[in-house]
What does this fold into?
Amino acid sequence: MANPSPILRQLGCFRSLMKPQSLQHAQISRRSITTAYTPKSQPLDFPSKMPKTFLSQIPTHLQPHSRKKLKVYPPPASATTTCKDAVGAVNQSQLETLDPTGERKALFDYRRNPRSVKVGDIVRVTFKNGDPFAGVCLSIRLRGHDTSFLLRNQLSRVGVEMWVKALSPNVESVEIVQRTAHRKRRARLYYMRQPRHDMGTVENIVTNYLRQKQGLRGIKGRGGRGQRR
Amino acid sequence: MPPRILGNLPQLPCLPKGSLFTIIRANVPTRSFGIRSLNPPKASRFNVGADLPVLKSTPTAALERKSRTLPLRTGTIVIKKGMTGLFDPETGKRVPCTVLQLDRVEVVSHKTRQIHGYNAVQLGSGWKHPSNMTKSLLGHFSASGVSPKRHVYEFRVKDEAGLLPVGQMINADWFQTGQYVDARSHAKGKGFAGVMKRHGFGGQDRSHGVSLKHRSMGSSGPGQGGGSRVYPGKKMAGNMGNQQNTVQNLKILKVDSENGIIVVQGAVSGPKGCQVRIQDAIKKPWPEVAPAELPAETPAEPTA
It folds into this structure.
């Protein structure tokens, strides 16, 4: 580190004056603090008749013909919006075909119809194929087209129960043989299965009813006190 | 042209200009695209001839084997809505049935023998908002001219005669009352289930010294004589359900094309609201379909 002479150091400020004029100008212009707007340079056009192989190597967003906007088609009308409850629709159509008048449904609608079958009644059912069955109605299940009821009887001292579908096409007629003496305070009379409460056979009541009906039919030609539907 | 041109420098000026240019260009390597095998397949010197039998491991032979069990026409996508009971009009018996509903089922595209190796109809059902869909899938639907679909499934068909035109909507009357279908869907997931539930194992004794092992499997295999290992495929505890299950030969009891409802006899796997694919049963004679429904000249002929 050689120290320059003190005289030379003082003269050092004139060094810039000794530089060529052109260089000085360039420096000033470079240090200018004004900023001029320069538009963003546009990408140059691709040469016409460019081979396809070259074109495919260019990124898609830089390709001359950008991709077309996709056309999205509207959805068609849906059956699931017009028919939201498909199972209900099937059930409803069943109900309409099996019970067009709504008579059979009303016969078991014990909540709304006061003249309907009620638990404790003795009911006789005849079938299209098979023997008729009579018994005490123990319970009624209201399930629309699946409505069913449970009958209990004793055949040769053996308790017999039978669930009958109220709207089944096999059920020809349902008639009330004898109404219960007073309203039962249970919806399901399963206690009647106990020996203490068992009603026993209803054979006698039904034969009496049938004989009476036969006699009435002989005189009047019309049905007895039971409702035949 | 002379190959040793560079060695003959004194001759250079008298060469025509064009020939020099071509030499230089020939040395520039041309760019090639794609993957090229170093050992391209060569034509076999053997087994060449017209009356040779079709090899068993070829796609042609595979299609020939499947031709008896591939349906002639496509099936459809349906939603399982629930179960109910119907009274059979003939016997008067009540039969359990499943209610299925179609939701905007349209043909999206085809798979063809020439391009994909097999014939199939790609169907879509439902609707999905375009903003929730990838652009590639959106382009697929856009090219077919159908709305964006939520569910897309393929249905294999025997030949080109079963390929419905793209964009055609399939309604419930595609199936007839009384015909049989196969229904495939995902069964309800049961989670991680033990061997008693999953495979019906008997479990172990309640007592007689059994402790904490009442529902577990017994031995998982033989000892030294059997190799002292657990054989592959041993039934053990694991994930149960949530797998595709096919229920075959379901009779169609009712068709309501207005509401898009199809009612089949019996149960279909899966929870309510799941997607079910139904197609003509492969173990029954093909249904008699009017030739107008099939776009081909050859009507559907029943085969066993």
About this structure: Chain A has eight helices and five strands.
